[in-house]
Predict the 3D structure of the following.
Amino acid sequence: MTSRGSGAGLIDRQHERRALDDLLAGAKDGRSGVLVLRGEAGIGKSELLKYLLERATGCRAVSAAGVQSEMELSYAGLHQLCAPLLPGIDSLPEPQRDALRTAFGLHIGAAPDRFLVGLATLSLLSNAAGSEPLLCVVDDAQWLDHVSAQTLEFVARRLLAESVVLAVAVREPTTSEMFIGLPELPLTGLLEEDSRKLLASVVTGPLDRRVRDRIVEETRGNPLALIELPHTLKALELTGDSGRVRTGPVSNRLEQDFLRRVRALPAETQRLLFIAAAEPVGDTTLLRRAAEQLGIAVDAAAADAEASGLITLGTWARFRHPLVRSAAYRAAVPDDRREAHRALADVTDPKLDPDRRAWHLARATVGPDEAVAVELERSADRAQARGGVAAAAAFLDRATQLTPDPASRGARALAAAHAKYQAGAFEAARELAGAAELGPLDEFGAARSILLRGRIMTASSSAGAGLPLLLQAARRLEPLDAGLARETYRDAIYAALTAGRLPHGKGIFEVAQAILATPAPAEPTRDDLLLDGQARLITEGYAAGAPLLRRALAEFRAGGIPPKEGLGWLPLACRLAHSTWDFESWSVLSARLVDLARETGAVSVLPSALLLRLSNRVFAGDLAGARSLVAEATAIGEATGSSFFAHYSALVVEPWKGREATTRQAIDAVTQDLLLRGEGKVETATQWAAAVLYNGLGRYAEAYAAALRGCENPQELGLSLQSTVELIEAAVRLGRPADAAVAVSKISDMAQASGTDWALGTAAGVRALVSEGQVAEALYREAIERLGGTGVRMDLARTHLLYGEWLRRENRRADARAHLSTAHDMLGHIGAEAFAERARRELQATGARVRRNSAAAQVALTPQEEQIARLVRDGLTNPEIGAQLFISPHTVEWHLRKVFSKLGITSRKEMRTVRLTGEAASA
């Protein structure tokens, strides 16, 4: 005989209970904690979560559970968790409040950025923990809707000092990689002695020792198996008279035993369980109405179902274990399943819950049905409006399958493919795009399909892989949608600049030629001028394209920029401002792009915007500001699970410090990044970084070799041009004037075409390097005068260094000391340590006595602490800082207390008087 109780509760699990107790203790001390419980079905994850809830005295608790279903409702799991906290939504900053309300269907607006929803959730949980710790428990997280899981991962990676505990249970094995890299508590089976103890608690009759040992062995300490399997064994099996106990994977055996128990119930009770298994929410009222519609005697069937111990029917229908739900659904033959879904669709309110109704209709439908497909399409539109692209993709995928008309089926397949692409499901998107192209797409649909495949290849493989498809799509779009065609050409040329070296001579030349072959608009916009200027620069030479680009950049700089245009065109504009030596435009537009990305919550654009901005700050000689942007890029990477932009940002900053180990580390991180594999810009950027490092260290042979590789592909512009400047300095120092002369001529020609003081000052500086006597001196002076009128302090400081070195070699020690002192001071304040050390050594050679610049003289803040200190000094509040750095206001406050302690201050007002690392004394 066996008892129907739950056994002895948690037997052993002392290690696991200590881990959970520590989480709660930390929250009560003001710390946040995250723990992911992983293990097979029945291993005890849910029981441990119950233990955690029971121990959470003095804490506020909220919970949610994923439900196994083929239905994807965007933000359903997150809404379930946050529903008790929604009265506090009005206290969130307006962009966060609107994003979360839209995601939950409480507000109609533009689809919110999912990371803004994540930040809003973080703020909501943080605020809820203001008076008492908050415990958030999520069971069966493997069945959460896609966007809810992503949001909770975002929150988990940002929790620090909010007094929030997030405990998540994930069944293993799972096909998706969720909550990876977070603190984990893997659960294994009970020890043999504890397994016997638990088994004895549920078997009240005689139990043969050999059968007991076999059950313990074959359940491998799985608590649910030890509790449930004896219920299915006959008395003879328990006493040892039936031979071998069945074997197989524990979860499979459990589900099979639950399946047998379902099938042993009366037919009407089984049908009630079928309906309950098909209704993922567990709404008992809806369950009763659907059952009554099918003629089921609900009261009798419900009594039998509860007596079986498989389900509890109170306000909500709760299966004993998710495996019971799975078994009940499997027990139904296809016709019974469709009958259950049809009944649920009929009793679901089409106004209050149209999406759930549409999904039940879809599951009840066998063949093509346009009416159901239309309902699913409408559900997809609603999901898109809430930012649930994964849910939209699921609705559209099913709508495609049910569409009878081939042309409509192709259009829906293309829409489903686009939604899958937006959700990051690139392989599924590629398959759906292929299916769409098999249908009779019209010309516009065919062009959009090619465009989508190009974007998929760019995102999933490389810019070089997607480039041919982007170019093909742009050409086909020209007669159909001129605006979309121009945007596609823009994306193609950006991809070509990124891809760099491509085989068979294809790439940027082909894109540029295609752009110039398009009919010119009668009144070109700044977008047109930018695209045409770049195309002419590539095909006709720098002198032909630079003036057009300068004109386009001036128009971008002068006028307002709507968000959509700014987010689409400013990344290319900033890149081309750098390439045309237009530092003012680069400074203004990169700042505007970062602000725009922050204000609109465009987290997909923000990392690249930060990279463009920090590159500008490096040349401005603001390494401290650049480091703060690296910290922000790193914060976004931690929040999104991507390290790409953090690695690339570090590559731009580290070489200037002159520390070989950290620079090599940054180079290796970028080189080994799988997302950058095969991109030409990787070779250019890493070689430029090495050239800067070794020129600073005075290791000119290594600098020359790196710079030579860095400028092999001049069509990339940007850092390829800067590599040419580094090449000239290294070549001159190595006594290779002929090699330097070719590069000097190139820079001089570009400067004449550009006409900016940055370009002309750079050209004068490199010409001075290959000149002698009064000519050299006049050129050095011209370079310093021109660069002094720009914001390019890094180049100005280096020119003072080069001029001072030249003067010392000319035995003009007094003059040399003046420029070397200027260089030493500027480079020291900037933080360009190797170049500053070069200036110090040269000063010593003139007979001057000078101390080394020492970073130790300033208090060492972490990058994030330094970023927060700067934002406080800029007047931002804690919530505003948290929104910018993707952390909660409580975490900002925690960091700020450490900053105050390190700096020896007690108020935000005192921050204005503090000089941070790398800042000039006057700052």
